[in-house]
Design a protein that fits this description.
Layout lengths: L17 E7 L7 E3 L5 E4 L11 E4 L5 E3 L3 H4 L12 E6 L4 E6 L14 E6 L5 E6 L12 E7 L4 E6 L7 E6 L4 E5 L13 E3 L2 E3 L5 E6 L5 E6 L4 E6 H5 L5 H5 L3 E5 L6 E3 L5 E5 L4 E5 L5 E6 L6 E6 L4 E6 L19 E7 L15
Antiparallel strand pairs: 1-26, 2-3, 3-4, 4-5, 6-7, 7-8, 8-9, 10-11, 11-12, 12-13, 14-15, 16-17, 17-18, 18-19, 20-21, 21-22, 22-23, 24-25, 25-26
Amino acid sequence: MSVLVSFQAAQAQSYGRTELVAAISRNMPAGVAVSQSGEVFLSFPRWGDVVPIAVGRLASSGEIIPFPNAEMNRYDPANPAGWHSTLGMKFDTQDNLWVLDNARVEFQTAAQGAIKLVAYHAQTGQLAHSFTFPEKIANPDTAFLNDLVLDEQRKFIYISDMSAGGQSALIVYDIAAQKAWRALDGHRSVMPEKVTVFVEREAIGINAGIDGIALDAKEDFVYWKALSGRTLYRIGARYLRDSQLPDAERQQKIEVVADTPIADGLLIDGAGNFFLTDLEHSAVIQRRRDGRLSVVSADERIIWPDSLATRGDGWLYVVSNQINRMKLFQQGKDKRKPPYALLRIWIGDEKPVPPPAAHLR
């Protein structure tokens, strides 16, 4: 079953080849990642719902299977090693799934030692890496680690910390040294801009900093923008990797790239194509190399397009999760209408041969 939403006559017609992969009735997904074999993995943050599965694999039957196992998904506030509240996720070329657990269950203070970055192999479920962020890097009261990108060539990970009540920043993680540091902490490029965000033609009271983050295909530049903002920025990744470089010097290396629509998820694929979600127009857009923006999908099923994923087979996956309808933005009333949608958009050159879609109950 797809998500059906009533739109007024002024709503634009659907554009692009967009297909429903899964209608998710039970919990609201946030992150999405696709393995080398084409399996889809989803994260489910604990933002007020009862969430039995925080990270799951979408089986061909339509069932969501706890990943890496049921024990890791069993929420226990006293167990910092288990999944608490998961968001961003990415696959590396070894088929390890890297997951950010910001541990901000119901947006409350994170449990001690629960803010972490963990990687498991998609096929074996074996632990590949684990790192717990020190409180000086991720304050349990204010940090809100959101999304990540992998620099596999140099073995670094760049993370967006939107922050909630504190200073937004980029967090840089050195995989080999197992060391993390904050960069551009509180700089205006990572903080909210003075904008009004409209979703489904309704103003949303949100004031949020850096959210979407992307790494170019050559792994030379990190791109980002604030959720509450229209400016797309970038910086040479080498300036982030230098832990001894003062932030004042890093700030001089920031480049303003473009003005864009209000976006949550960003993604640059292996061919260098740059995609952004467009919250205000229920769309996914592409920024071309000449700077022009074009629509790749506009669809009434896209209600708060959150995260993006691809594995280079011509399909771009997007999570539509109705965040704007949460009681946090609706005067305490939950206006979400499950099912939530996992969609895919054809961005390839040739006619696709789609596998069967899964529909969740």
